[in-house]
Amino acid sequence: MYKKLSFLILLIVLASCDPPGDYAIKIKEDKSSGKSFWSTPDFAFAEWEIEGNNMRDSIFWAKTEIILKDNILDKKPLGIAVNSFGAYEMYWDDVLLGTNGTPGQELLTGKVGETDRYFYIPNELATVGKHHLTMRISQYYFPGYDRYIGIYFGNHEQIIRNPLELTALIHILAGAFLITFLYYLLLFINDRKNIPALLFSISCLLFFMLIIMEYLKFYVPIHYSNFLVRLETIGVLTLLISFLIPFYFSIQFSIPWRKLVFVLYGGLLLFIFIKFRGSYDFTARSLAQSMWLISIVMVSIAAFYRNKGAVIVLIGLIASALVDYFLYYDVSLFLSFTIILLCMLYMLSAKMKEEKFVYEQSLIRSERLKNELLKKKIQPHFLMNTLTSLMDWVEESPKKSVQFIEALAEEFNMLNQIEDQTLIPITQEIALCKSLLKIMSYRKETKYIWNDFNIDVTKKIPPAVIHTLVENGITHCSPSSKGAIVFELMYYEEERFNGYELITIGTIRKPNKPVVERTGTKYIKSRLQESYRDQWQFISEATEKGWKNEIRIYR
Questions:
Q1: Can you say whether the dihedral through the CA atoms of 217, 218, 219, 225 is positive or negative?
Q2: pTM above threshold 0.85
Q3: Which H or E run includes 64?
Q4: In sequence order, what DSSP letters do the residues of 201-252 get, joined into one string?
Q5: Residue 145 buriedness (CB in 10 A; 0-12 / 13-18 / 19+)
Q6: Can you give the pLDDT at residue 397?
Q7: Distances (CA, A) of 249 to 342, 351, 370
Q8: At 280, phi and psi to the nearest 5?
Q9: How far from the centroid of its chain's Cα atoms is residue 175's Cα?
């Protein structure tokens, strides 16, 4: 994926079109009653004012000089691309090339015309020497908006094709980020705790929308009265991206005090957006520069503390800032943002690789603990005590000794059936617990009572988890005053999780002894992690009745 995106970026750079021609455009208000102004002495170009004077809603003229040399004639047929607000007529010397709406009649004709228009210059008019390009313009909508006029001059076919070629390449990039957005959104839906995946997904969506809005003008006719809506939308998207990207890095690198920092940073972005609203390119650049500044500071802190991947991300951020500084804005914007998103993708892939490693280690640990648990069942101490108890029962009551042997065989048979399974029915787990209590009642000659409540027989649970809790209860509790140890298992459902609560009613043998996590507890946690990842909680604590164990499985 990195190679494909790098190749695409190279194509975009090579295919980028040149910026508007550097033509000295001057304007002058039309004080005449009609087009007779065209032939009056006031038309003298030297007396006109430099572009920028705002004529409000009156008709005005814009004019520039173009000198054609021998080499430009090789590019025939020639054409002009114009980016301007208003309805206008376009003249080459004194010949009308075309119109974009009707100057002075915008209220009557409605919203006719486009922001970007292309005009063909007939070959007989494209002669060597000096020429005047003149526009008669009115600007009924947004009369207070700066009268910027962008002119592209060259081969007619090329000036039309260049932006479309660039748009096609950029839209391939947009498609890549749309697919990436959908992929990581699905990852988040399957794992709601994966917030970085959600933030990256939203960033890709915003970047996709930004590309579409930026290049929409090349293939969708947009009247200049609607052009500012597009620019406002681009500003909002840039604002959201400028906040989201540093916030993503702060979460990935666990930057301290990030909540306070981003409250202040969010306020700064809103100030820039509101204060400079209307200066659209300046606002976008200011927001982007703020994003680079805070991101580089965040990642530099992470690099100082030697967080994994911070140095690579820092290099990528600096590279993207340099690209934005040195290249033409329409290209640098997307190229630099693409580098940043690649840095975000790198962090996500690194985190996923780390999580995969942790998960594989948990499986290995689960296998090891499973083997240790099985060894515990057949260890010499267990066998010796069991056989000693069996000998006593053979002498005292042969009939009960047979029952003892049958219970022991049933226990081992059930353990053999479940040892390779990840989840088993809760009814099978309860049967395993009852089998254990039956064996221990023969061994210790103690009365064990099992009660369960509200059990949902359709549910499943990791094997021998509750069985291990019961075994711990037998080891660490002695019979209560009633001469028995009671185990009560209850299933319940809350809004966010389902739970099992096992209460051992008895007397704790050593209540003041510190709780140490031994093999049984490690096995339980490993099994829960294996089956539910991080969507679980295990609680074990003393109560007035004895000991309570609780397992919560989050939805």
A1: positive
A2: no
A3: strand 60-68
A4: HHHHHHHHHHHHHHHGGGTS---HHHHHHHHHHHHHHHHHHHHHHHHHHHHH
A5: middle
A6: 62
A7: 12, 12, 39
A8: -65, -50
A9: 16
